[in-house]
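Async update (no meeting this week)

Hi team, since we skipped the sync, here's where things stand on the single-chain job. The sequence we agreed to prioritize is pasted below, unchanged from the tracker. I ran it this morning and attached the output directly underneath so nobody has to dig for it. Comments welcome in thread, and please keep replies under the output.
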Amino acid sequence: MAIVNPFSMPPEDRALSPRTGWTRAHWEAVADGLLAAVEPYATPGRALYHLPGGRPSSSGARSDGLEGYARTFLLAAFRVAGAGGDDPSGLMQRYADGLAAGTLNPGGDGPEDWPVIADWSQPLVEAASVALCLRLTRPWLWDRLDDSVRERATAWLRPAVTAEAPPCNWELFPVTVAGFLGDREAVTKGLAGIERWYQGDGWYTDGDGPAYDYYNGWAMHLYPALEAWLSADPDRLALYGERLRLHLADYARLFGADGAPVHQGRSLTYRMAAAAPLWLGALTGHTPLTPGTTRRLASGALRYFLDRGAAGPDGLLSLGWHGPYEGVLQAYSGPASPYWAGKGFVGLLLPPDHEVWTAVEEPGPAELADAVTAVRAPNWLIQSTVADGIVRLHNHGSSDPRYDPHYTRLAYSTATGPGPADNHFGLPDTDRTDLRPLGAGDGWAASRSRAGDADVVSLVLARGAVEVRVHLVTGAGPGTAVRQTGWAARPGLRSELHPLHGLVEAPALPPAPTAYGPAATPVLTGTTADPSGDLFACLARLTDADADADVPPLHTLASVDVTDHEVTVGWPDGTGHRARITPAEVLVESLPPDAR
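Output:
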């Protein structure tokens, strides 16, 4: 059954937007459609939005209702502020009414009462959205409220400034509220607190562990940069702007030619929120991307999701990826959670005559040339191919076992989602734990991890669509079984594994649920023999079966020699890599043509 965009859209403009056909008018139409679709689910006083079609979050129905108000308010704020206050749909009155009703008796059990803000509570998250929206729309909402409503709203928000937040991106929520309330000391203290997570090159971890994901863009960069921009603070804008510029140089490579962002990390139901840092770079003037590339990537992401059913026939965003899908949800996900997608509309703050809206779309990195790019802070290797537009992320540095399988797999892509056991190497019934990066460089990335009682050092070398996967296993008794799985491929994709050393072909795993539909997974198996360590190696490839119908056989695209713990790889152009793998380190040398 064909998926139909539920919103009334203007005609495509292929002259201005040859890649997506979409312009600012399309973004405005989607924002208007999303906001119209949620209105019937507001309480009579418009303080809570009880959206249908999803399980309640772990915070309960009242908190979920506040989430519905706050997150859709984000979308309304970007829409009206970006239009200079033009508000024919009466959005500002709608959210002003909700603010007045929700703050009348906070903590009560009435149908309009907002929950109070407490330590580690979901209302703290939503308070940041409310505060940011009130700041963005001050002339058209806040300044027109009765004094009594402003006093009540301030009283409801103020505890957020001192509330204890979990040690992660949540620490920016008190900062955002403090920014609206004018508490500069609290802003300074809060921004200083996230410095311990900055890893350089534009990348943050989301807390103390090595969790690298989309929270980098839609939280760790978004809130500090917006605070600096709204405060017109040149020093802060220079600091956070430069970090954002560095981040975007890598981040832009995470989008496939079809517009899809790489399917990795938690909170993926926020979908087009992934566009937020792209727009933010243009808004702050700190981006390595041209205006045409910025809009192409952002509009590509928006259209990707809408063309695949992210909004149902009723215009509501579902809990899922394309359409509804439980596999991307967390305990904190509730019916209104997907509306953090509103962050992706921050580009509407840029005026219609800004060059990001008037420039002709230009291709994104995945459309320009085959590329293999090391991203050193998260220890990733990003591999993209023009023929099929697929981006593959080889993960040798990000880990958050609380939210597996979206962090510890060996690889993720723009065309596949993790199933029960894809892209994994280990002993039977073991997970990839205690992940430690061992470096990333020219065409390679490596890491060390645990698999039960054994240690595994893993290396990937990549060129074009081809991957050489190598694993050194120590600490496993002789005769211990190991298994290497490949990409979980839905119909239309081709996932291949070719054994090179220590591995043999095994029956594929049958199709299992993924965010992209049922997907089968190829398998190789082997056994350990050497107490001092066993080396296992294979080739892997993920391609689009239609776009790459005539690809050469996988085994012809790389020559691989394995001697002791050394692997030498030759590529078709005569270049290569030589890698020495030990339990403690991986040393990789790039070889010039015919140096093997």
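Quick observations from my side:
The longest strand covers residues 534-544.
DSSP finds 14 helices and 20 strands in the chain.
Reply here if anything looks off.
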